[in-house]
Amino acid sequence: MLSAETINYDINNICLKLNVLNVIRNEGVATKQFVSRMLNFNLTTVSHLINELHLSAGLLEVSGDDLSSGGRKPKLYRINSKAGFLVGVDIGGENLRFLLTDISGNIVFKIKKKNEFANSENKLMQDILENINNVIKDSGVAPGKIYGAGLSISGIIDSDNGKSVYCPNIDALNDFYIKKYIEEKTGIHTFVDDSVRCMTVAEKHYGAAKNYENFLFVGLGKGIGLGIYVNGKIYRGSNGLSGELGHITVAEDGPICNCGNKGCLEAIASSSGILKRATDGIKNKIATSLITKVQGDISKLTVEDISDAANAGDKFAYYIINRTGEYIGIAIAAALNLFGTELVVLGGGISQSGEIMINAIKRIVHMRALEVVSKKTKVIKSELDEYNAAWGAATKYINILFKDKDYNLIRRMNLK
Ligand SMILES: [Zn+2]
Question: If DSSP states are collapsed to H, E and C, what string results for 175-221?
């Protein structure tokens, strides 16, 4: 049996090593002397810990000499990115995306495919398991080096219990303990969150929000959600219920929303809301090129068709896209008045609809949010690609490896 002192020693040692790793991770590269100063530990202790993390564990590597100091040049250490790998999965209503990152977050392999089984729990889960296996196999990474998986799902997710609660576009996942299922079938420890929060994390680590401790991320697609990053952390709310920007009322007598209310932003400005407004106009014989664009079959109309037509000068298409941006701007202005951040990042498929919409959003945000709040606020489009949710999900797991009490790297590698 372990004595209380041995256990305490182990826990302290795990914490010390994690602290060392985190200093080096945050800096990119660091000398033993720098780590010792940052942590206020003596150099002998730090030197011992770094040697162990470098030589025995392979979690650190030498990246060169520190040329800034005179005399004998101290070595610079960095995280050995290839010490472990993570799976990132994005389950959307239309597409599934799978990727593998190393522990520094570099993507080493990725696959995208259509979600063909959004209505069948069995078939969808089979498809997901198969592709998790494929992404690992095809990357050439040894399965023993996979430390975890992050899942991003479009819908309302109970992260603490690993459950997808309500997914309006993926019926198969309503009320489903997906974390438990994946862990049982793959043996890979798994973390689940909703897609907007995963995209928000990707934006913080790799995108426009890198240097911000407070920002808002607006996910514009089939649904509309808000990622809230406050004081260097994602804000989740009670039970993970926060950021439902799509269900803010923007038109008191507007169309009925999926949630049962009237005039929610999502009913007007989500992809289905935009298409509904456009097809209503076409049915009412409004003058527009859209009908010839889809050769008379309005069921084929896409948001891209409408924004292309708007850019080409179609007045009705311009009205739809511009108005969509204005409604989104009203909701963002309300969010800005509440959170007062200096940055708003627009992401998701609809954010790619071109400058007409983006300009309308910016105009209304600056018109409607309090001037003292919005005058310093930048509203910009995300530069990340469609793998952002899967990337953010894997990155959330990387953060677990460097912080979590039970699932951190030191414990996982049995390094006490
Ligand atoms: Zn609603």
Answer: CECHHHHHHHHHCCCEEEEEHHHHHHHHHHHHCCCCCCCCEEEEEEC
